[in-house]
Each structure stands twice: as structure tokens, then as C-alpha cells.
């Protein structure tokens, strides 16, 4: 039989990727008809992973370093991929490592766009221009979204950290009692994560419930009533503008307790700061030590039992220099074409080696 | 047992005035929740004194169900009674709250006890055990778990009276003794090239000998008188059986998880049918058909000449044939579509007029099926990655015509 060169426009592109779809032993009409059948079934998924394809990821953080980072989400990619292009602060491309432990990843590459505002990420996901984007509380709760949502365990600790200027323990404790965590959790955080008075989340320590997170405004007022106005007045800084609204609400709560809170002057950190600290280990002792390091607190003593861990955490919290508020998950919106085991660990770390994208063909 | 007086404080939420640690020498975790509850009860009895009442509130913050909490509560109350104390809600001087909690490594029973301004917190812990997997049974398909382990399994076979488990790192021979399998010998596996992700492998048994196919390797071994196993680099095709009679040779794509599409039929005809994951043969009205799950998600039906004769759209990528004949033709077992993140099921189908007809209700499995191979003529071997336990389980699935 004489063979006619393949001329179906779609077939050409497919044939370039997959020699098996060239249908070279059939006449053109048969080949195109067969190809149409093939394409009609493209949307069907199978249990086994596909090889090939690019995972398009967007992130808010813009890492400006000249070299790819050695820690954090991007560094985690090197478990299965090697960096093939790095444009600090803007873009990174990681290619599948054929010698990766556990075998070459199914994806050909991961393309990461950095410095993307959350709103723009959401739009990119909706337009199908991104496969994996960061979600905020409202994105995650949006009903009727066609996207998959991947959520880690609570690993972001939102807390208040007092600087040295606020010396009176009663003032600090009054603020801890004044914050209406329930209201903030319900409205601003859309009930994401957990309210907590502990540094370590319940899933890591099993002991978070022992640390109270109750609101007691009358008690807070009674603690500040006898203090002079200057001692009850301080500034509240916010490390991440995304948490500005929560800081404003805390300032309102504080007013009910007789405290006067205002924003710090430009460039100043604030007498107390609303911070978010990420937990990077599921081992409670390691996680607590890392939190202390991140917050500039003294390293806790050895913690090799639940009792020692509890004692260490209590010791860190007893002077109210640190007021834990919430434990929040890391949440991603994911294009439905992305398949495979969840691409994040309970700690929110990226694990893309086992992902594949549906449109890809071998 | 880890039971420690952790703190004595003034006021329920007051700042700690002192920390008192007492860790008994050789402290270790309790064996289980009941042991932990009894230890807390002993501490409680020592704290409140013989004959004194205590009120106890219980709370469950863990994943263990209410039955586990009830067990712990019963053990706690029995131990407290043994120690001469009594539980009462009528004006007790001492109030306790016991919480069943957990972290990733262990379960915790935490008791907060308060008498006046004095408060103490005690912990008792025990290591997390295996979760009992949920099971289900089908009406026509029957499953029996034959082996489970932490490491991935690629295939399990039964040469002679033995069992051979193929894992990515080794081949292990098990022999039956006093009703259970025990490891008799093991041979490590090594490959000149890194294994592909989603590694696949297959054991084909011939009496006490067996062949093993792995990407880029062909191995042969035996179990009599002892385990022997040798591999060599090979690009030879794998023998793909369906039941005990039908056979197909398929070339496996190096570094991938599928066959590259080149097949050789039992009659010796060579064809290129496109990349596929699995193959099974069925009989329809006396005619043999081959079903191949293609990498695009379709299952293509081929006639005996390997010409396309229909397709099935809604199966997963793993199928296997058996010798069972329920009704007019033979059956093929198929997984359902998924992406490896949810539980799976195997269902029996027959091919009628070149389309698939379900014959059984789906046999639910506790995780995605990672391998499905014929196992002798009448059974199929399914490897399941149990989502609840994280372990790999091998099931022998048989078709019963009912």
C-alpha cells in the first residue's frame, strides 16, 4: 500500500509528540477519522499516570535572589526536577530529572511565575492559564468553583508578638483576652484553620487544646483600668498587608478593653506586630524550636515527652510576649486537568513528582 | 508509661508558679488506651485520696471513635474504683477533665484535674497502631487479601506451595507455616537504569519456576529447593496472559509505565496498536477479542487480527481476563477511572455486540489499584494502595457466577 503523508492539522501536532499516533499504515481519510475518534476520547481519564506536559504554577512571593533558593517551596522541587531557567523575582523553570529518586517525574517541567498578586493568580486559574495558584480564604470557600482545592494541615501560625516597649504583662494579657478570635475566624478567615491559644497546632502537638483562647473583655478592662493612658497606648504593625483587616479588627477589640492601638509610623515595625510564621516540621519539638528561632525567642529546652513539650510551650507563652491567634492551612487552587496524589504535603510543601496533567500524551 | 505531674498552679488559667517534673526511670508509652487510662486513674487516686469523690468529664479530640473513648473511660473508672475512689457529680471537691487527643506519632490521654486553686495536668500516651482497613464484599466478585506490606508491591504469585512477592527493591519468597506466611529468602533487585516512576512488574508462574518482567530486565527464578533468581538486561517482550489460555507478547516502553504498542499475537502476527497499559482477552459468541487500555483513556476492542472492533470509554487503565464463563462469554475485570487519589473498584464485564456490559456490582477496594494481573486461570491479583493505612495490599479476586 502506498502511504500518503499525514496532513490533518491536529494530527501533525499530535504526531510530533507521539509517534504512535501517526497512523502511518492507513490512508489519509482513515487516519484522520481514527484521529477524530482518538480526540473525542481525550477527556477520559485513566488510573495510570501520563508522562509529559508542563505544570504552570503561580506564587505571590518574588524571590529576587541571583540563584535559585535552597529552602522553601521552590527548593522542594529539586526532589524530582532540576532548575533549567532562573529569572530571579520573575520566573523559574524546573525540568524533570531522569535520575530522580523514585524515577523520572511524570511531568516534563514545572514553570513557576513569581510575584503574582493573589487576585491575578485567581484570574489565571479561571482562564486556564495556570494550573496551580495560591488561594486566600475567600477563594477557598467560593461555591461552585470548578477547581480542585488542595489544603495543607494548619501550618501558618498567625500571632501577635510584643516588642520590648510594652513592659507591663497585664497590658499584654489584656490584649490576649480582648481579641475576638471567633469573629475574625468566622468573617475574615471564612472559618479556615483553627482558633488557638497555642503555638503548635493540635495536629502536631496534640496539646493545643490545653492553651485557652477565650475572649474575656470585662477581665481585660479590669486589668487595664488602673493603668495610666500612656501605658495603655501602643502601635500595631502588620508584616503582611494581606492581614491588614485583621489588624484593624484587633485594634477595635483592644479599644473595648481600654487599650489604644494605632498603626506605627512609616518604616517602624510597631510595638506589637501581627505576624505569620510558617511551621516547617511535623515533629513537635523541632517545630517549636523553629518557631522560637523565627520569633527571636530563647530556644526551648530538650523536649522528649509530651509533658516536656507542654511545659516548654507554657513557658514561652506565660509572659504574653507572644499571643497565638490562629493556625491556618496553606491552600491552593488547582486546575482539574492536574491529576495524581495531592501535590502538597500536610506541611504544605510542594511534591510535584507524582503529578501529571491530563492533556499530556506520551 | 509516661505519666508525669506537670504543673501545680493557682487558678485554672493562671500563670505557672512552678513546674514539677517527675519522670519515672525507664518511662515508656502505654501499650494501649486502656493502659493509659488505668495509669491516669492511679494518679488521680493518689491525688484525691481514698474514699474521696471526683467528677470526671470526658472529651474526644482525636480520630479514634467513641468506642475507643468508652473503652478508656471504662478502664479509668474501674481502676479508680479499685483504688477506693468514687466518681460523683454531687459537689465533688475535685474535678477532672480527660481528653483523648493525638499527634502524628502517638495518641494522648490528657487529664486536667483541679481541686480548689490547685491544678495539675497529666499525660499518658501510646503509639499509633494500624488502622483496620474497611472491607466490602461484592455479590459476584469475591476478594481475599493474600498479603500486605509497607513497601510497594508490583505483583504476587504462587509458584509451587510458596508465595513470591515482587517489590521494587527485592523478590521475596514466603513459605507457609502454622497458618501464616513467613519470609524464607529474599533477593535484592537492581537495575542498570533508575526505575521509572509508577514502576510495573509482572510474575509469570510455571509450576515451581517463575519468570519476572521488569522495565529493561527479564528475570527467571525458582523456589525448589530454594529461592533462585537471576536477571539480565532485556528488551524482549513481556508475556501478557489472559486467564490460562490466551496470550499476547507486548513490548514495554523503557522508562515509562506502558507498553509501546508493538504486540505479537499467539498466531505470530506482529502489530502496532498504539501505547497501552494492559491487555485482556474475552470470548464473545465463540470469537476471541482483545481489549487494550490505551494511554489516552480509551479501552480499544480488537478482533483476532488486531483490527479495531469497538471501544469502551469508562474503564480505568488496568484490566485482566479470567477463565470464568458466566453466561455466553468470558469476563474481563476492569478498574474504574481515577487519578490515584481515591478508592478504586474492580468490576466484571462481558463484551456483547462489541460493547461492555457490566456483570457484577463494583467490588470496592480501599485505595487505588496499582497493579492488576491474571493469577492462574480463575483469579486476578490486584495490588491496592490502601489510603487509610498507607500500606500495599494484594488481593486475589475471583469471579463467581452465582
Architecture overview:
The complex is a heterodimer of chains A (362) and B (402). By secondary structure, chain A is α+β, with helices and mostly antiparallel strands. Helix content of chain A is 29%, strand content 21%. Chain A folds into three domains: 39 residues, no CATH class; 101 residues, 3-Layer(aba) Sandwich (D-Maltodextrin-Binding Protein, domain 2), CATH 3.40.190; 175 residues, Roll (Dipeptide-binding Protein, domain 3), CATH 3.10.105. In chain A, helix 10 links the parallel strand 8 and strand 9. The longest helix of chain A is centred in the N-terminal third of the chain and has 13 residues. Chain A is elongated, with a radius of gyration of 26 Å. Chain B has 402 residues and is mainly beta. Chain B folds into two domains: 122 residues, Rossmann fold (3-Layer(aba) Sandwich), CATH 3.40.50; 256 residues, YVTN repeat-like/Quinoprotein amine dehydrogenase (Methylamine Dehydrogenase, Chain H). Chain B contains two helices and 32 strands. A seven-stranded mixed beta sheet of chain B has the order 2-1-7-6-5-3-4. In chain B, helix 1 runs parallel beside helix 2. Chain B starts with 6 loop residues before the first strand and ends with a strand. Chains A and B meet through helix 2, helix 8 and helix 12 of A and strand 5, strand 6 and strand 7 of B.
Amino acid at each position: 500500500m502506498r502511504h500518503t503523508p499525514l496532513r490533518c492539522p491536529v494530527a501533525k501536532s499530535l504526531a510530533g509528540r507521539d509517534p504512535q499516533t501517526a497512523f502511518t499504515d492507513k490512508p489519509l481519510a482513515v487516519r484522520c477519522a481514527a484521529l477524530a475518534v482518538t480526540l473525542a476520547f481525550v477527556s477520559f481519564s485513566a488510573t495510570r499516570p501520563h508522562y509529559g506536559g508542563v505544570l504552570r504554577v503561580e506564587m505571590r512571593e518574588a524571590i529576587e535572589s541571583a540563584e535559585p533558593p535552597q529552602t522553601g517551596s521552590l527548593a522542594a522541587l529539586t526532589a524530582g526536577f532540576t532548575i533549567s531557567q532562573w529569572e530571579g523575582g520573575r520566573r523559574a523553570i524546573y525540568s524533570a530529572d531522569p535520575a530522580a529518586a523514585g524515577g523520572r517525574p511524570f511531568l516534563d517541567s514545572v514553570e513557576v511565575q513569581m510575584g503574582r498578586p493573589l487576585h491575578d493568580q485567581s484570574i489565571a486559574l479561571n482562564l486556564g492559564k495556570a494550573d496551580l495558584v495560591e488561594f486566600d480564604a475567600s477563594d477557598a470557600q467560593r461555591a461552585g468553583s470548578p477547581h480542585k482545592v488542595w489544603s495543607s494541615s494548619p501550618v501558618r501560625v498567625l500571632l501577635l508578638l510584643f516588642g520590648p516597649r510594652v513592659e507591663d504583662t497585664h497590658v499584654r494579657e489584656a490584649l490576649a483576652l480582648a481579641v475576638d478570635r471567633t469573629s475574625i475566624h468566622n468573617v475574615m478567615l471564612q472559618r479556615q484553620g483553627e482558633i488557638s491559644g497555642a503555638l503548635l497546632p493540635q495536629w502536631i502537638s496534640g496539646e493545643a487544646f490545653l492553651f485557652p483562647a477565650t475572649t474575656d473583655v470585662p477581665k481585660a478592662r479590669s486589668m487595664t483600668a488602673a493603668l495610666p493612658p500612656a501605658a495603655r497606648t501602643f502601635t500595631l504593625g502588620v508584616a503582611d498587608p494581606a492581614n491588614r483587616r485583621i489588624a484593624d479588627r484587633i485594634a477595635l477589640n483592644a479599644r473595648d478593653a481600654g487599650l489604644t492601638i494605632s498603626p506605627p509610623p512609616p518604616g517602624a515595625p510597631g510595638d506589637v506586630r501581627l505576624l505569620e510564621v510558617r511551621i516547617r516540621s511535623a515533629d513537635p519539638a523541632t517545630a517549636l524550636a523553629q518557631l522560637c528561632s523565627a520569633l527571636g525567642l530563647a530556644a526551648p529546652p530538650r523536649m522528649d515527652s509530651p509533658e516536656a513539650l507542654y511545659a516548654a510551650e507554657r513557658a514561652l507563652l506565660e509572659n504574653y510576649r507572644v499571643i497565638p491567634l490562629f493556625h491556618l492551612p496553606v491552600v491552593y487552587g488547582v486546575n482539574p486537568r492536574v491529576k495524581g496524589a495531592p501535590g502538597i504535603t500536610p506541611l504544605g510543601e510542594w511534591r510535584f513528582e507524582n503529578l501529571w496533567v491530563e492533556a499530556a500524551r506520551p | 508509661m509516661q505519666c508525669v505531674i506537670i504543673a501545680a498552679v493557682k487558678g485554672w488559667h493562671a500563670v505557672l508558679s512552678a513546674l514539677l517534673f517527675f519522670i519515672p526511670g525507664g518511662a515508656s508509652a502505654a501499650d494501649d488506651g486502656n493502659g493509659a487510662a488505668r495509669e491516669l486513674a492511679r494518679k488521680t487516686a493518689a491525688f484525691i485520696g481514698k474514699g474521696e469523690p471526683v467528677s470526671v468529664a470526658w472529651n474526644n479530640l482525636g480520630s479514634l471513635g467513641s468506642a475507643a473513648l468508652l473503652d478508656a473511660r471504662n478502664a479509668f473508672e474501674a481502676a479508680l474504683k479499685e483504688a477506693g475512689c468514687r466518681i460523683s457529680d454531687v459537689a465533688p471537691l475535685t474535678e477532672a477533665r480527660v481528653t483523648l487527643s493525638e499527634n502524628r506519632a502517638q495518641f494522648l490521654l490528657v487529664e486536667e484535674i483541679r481541686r480548689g486553686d490547685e491544678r495539675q495536668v497529666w499525660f499518658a500516651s501510646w503509639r499509633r497502631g494500624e488502622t483496620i482497613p474497611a472491607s466490602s464484599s461484592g455479590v459476584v466478585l469475591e476478594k481475599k487479601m493474600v498479603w500486605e506490606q509497607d513497601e510497594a508491591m508490583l505483583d504476587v504469585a504462587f509458584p509451587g506451595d510458596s508465595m513470591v512477592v515482587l517489590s521494587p527493591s527485592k523478590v521475596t519468597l514466603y513459605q507457609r507455616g502454622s497458618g501464616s506466611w513467613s519470609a524464607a529468602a529474599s533477593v535484592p533487585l537492581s537495575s542498570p537504569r533508575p526505575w521509572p516512576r509508577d514502576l510495573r512488574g509482572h510474575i509469570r508462574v510455571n509450576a515451581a519456576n517463575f519468570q519476572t518482567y521488569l522495565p529493561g530486565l527479564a528475570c527467571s527464578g525458582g523456589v525448589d529447593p530454594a529461592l533462585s533468581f537471576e536477571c539480565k538486561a532485556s528488551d524482549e517482550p513481556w508475556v501478557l496472559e489472559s486467564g490460562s489460555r490466551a496470550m499476547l507478547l507486548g513490548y514495554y516502553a523503557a522508562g515509562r509505565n506502558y507498553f509501546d504498542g508493538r504486540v505479537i499475537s499467539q498466531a505470530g502476527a506482529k502489530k502496532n496498536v498504539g501505547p497501552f497499559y494492559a491487555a485482556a482477552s474475552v470470548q464473545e459468541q465463540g470469537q476471541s477479542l482483545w481489549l487494550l487500555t490505551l494511554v489516552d483513556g480509551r479501552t480499544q476492542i480488537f478482533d483476532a487480527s488486531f483490527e479495531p472492533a469497538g471501544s469502551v470509554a469508562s474503564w480505568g487503565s488496568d484490566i485482566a481476563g479470567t477463565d470464568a464463563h458466566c453466561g455466553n462469554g468470558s469476563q474481563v475485570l476492569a478498574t474504574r477511572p481515577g487519578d490515584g487519589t481515591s478508592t478504586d473498584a474492580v468490576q466484571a464485564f462481558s463484551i456483547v455486540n462489541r460493547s461492555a456490559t457490566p456483570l457484577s456490582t463494583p467490588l470496592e477496594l480501599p485505595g487505588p489499584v496499582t497493579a492488576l494481573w491474571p493469577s492462574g486461570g480463575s483469579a486476578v491479583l490486584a495490588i491496592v494502595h490502601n489510603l487509610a493505612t498507607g500500606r500495599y495490599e494484594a488481593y486475589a479476586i475471583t469471579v463467581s457466577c452465582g
